[in-house]
Amino acid sequence: MIRLQNLRKNYTVQGKTVPALMGIDLTIEKGEIFGIIGHSGAGKSTLIRCINMLERPTSGHVIVDGVDLTTLDDRKLQEQRRQIGMIFQHFNLLSSATVAENVAFPLKLAKRPKAEIDKKVNELLTLVGLEAHRDKYPSQLSGGQKQRVGIARALASDPKVLLCDEATSALDPQTTNSILALLLDINRKLGLTIVLITHEMHVIRSICDRVGVIDGGVIVEEGKVLDVFLKPQHPTTREFVEQVADSAELREVVAHEKAAGDQTIVRITFLGEKTYQPILFQTMQETGTMFSILQGTISRMKDTPYGQLVVELSGNPEQNSRAIETLRQRGLEVEVM
Ligand SMILES: Nc1ncnc2c1ncn2[C@@H]1O[C@H](COP(=O)(O)OP(=O)(O)OP(=O)(O)O)[C@@H](O)[C@H]1O
């Protein structure tokens, strides 16, 4: 659906060239939710704004649904942009227009007939759960409600792609979750391709299928969220994974236990249905190994349940090796720490 080829963007500041994107190659498939995560200044906003050409790339190609946007004149670009909706961190609503008028705005601009606009606005307000607020002004809405208006407005022209520029960064955690759930719902109901940028791993973990990690204007790691999450390769990715993994606390616990003697400490990762099966207990019973739990989490990555347990094995060395081998044979990931 979206192909970025050797995308580069330089800004010029006081006569000096500031490179923001340094050769981005990415393919985003139709219907997927693709997250781009990076620290401040990494190039996220520049990248997402290049996808709808709000920012003109210095070189490279942006191909959306087979059309290379970098080759189009302004009129054709305007047309193609209708395929690409966008929502923003600070919502960008018209403060002097009601909820319904904000949603109707792109349709009025496109000179659609009034009956069609009314029907579409009603549908969209139902989709985002704001029917009861249609005549309110943005100042009378909560942050989450404002973002719902932003989403409804972005969907007014039936886009194929929705770009989300830090869409939940101004919201509290509970509201963030409700907006993420809405995005997931829209993705499923409408088959919409969603690209979002964020600096929060929680956002990626909740709804994305794949993720790209951007650092210094390049994608340093890319893959399925589950793979990137469980086996981060690049230091920047590891930092982001630590945001949601209690890693600092874990390091302390492991160091403390190791200091107490020659302990075998393992991290066991359960995925999917295995998360809920008593594999650990069975294996320990069969191999006669005792164990104590040092840390544990059960969570979800989008639709996949996963659990991680850090345990100390206190059998003899042979029993411990057999337990580790058996856990691996039963499909669990076991890392000796
Ligand atoms: N309009 C601009 N003029 C000059 N330099 C810019 C402009 N916009 C961005 N930059 C620079 O380009 C680089 C990437 O910025 P960008 O805003 O894309 O990063 P970001 O990852 O979105 O950061 P943040 O999360 O802080 O918004 C930074 O060095 C930034 O200073």
Write up this protein.
By secondary structure, the chain is an alpha/beta fold. The chain folds into two domains: 235 residues, 3-Layer(aba) Sandwich (Rossmann fold), CATH 3.40.50.300; 90 residues, Alpha-Beta Plaits, CATH 3.30.70. 38% of the residues lie in helices and 30% in strands. It has a six-stranded mixed β-sheet, with helices on both faces. Strands 2-1-4-5 form a four-stranded antiparallel β-sheet, with helices on one face. Strands 12-13-11-14 form a four-stranded antiparallel β-sheet, with helices on both faces. A hairpin with a 2-residue loop joins strand 4 and strand 5. Helix 3 packs across helix 4, helix 3 packs parallel to helix 5 and helix 4 crosses helix 5. It starts with a strand and ends with a strand. The mean pLDDT is 92. The site of adenosine-5'-triphosphate (ATP) has 13 residues, from strand 1, strand 2 and helix 1. Keywords: Amino-acid transport, ATP-binding, Cell membrane, Membrane, Nucleotide-binding, Translocase, Transport. InterPro entries: AAA+_ATPase, ABC_transporter-like_ATP-bd, ABC_transporter-like_CS, ACT-like_dom_sf, MetN_ABC, MetN_ABC_transporter-like, NIL_domain, P-loop_NTPase. One of its GO terms (molecular function) is ATP hydrolysis activity. This is Methionine ABC transporter ATP-binding protein.
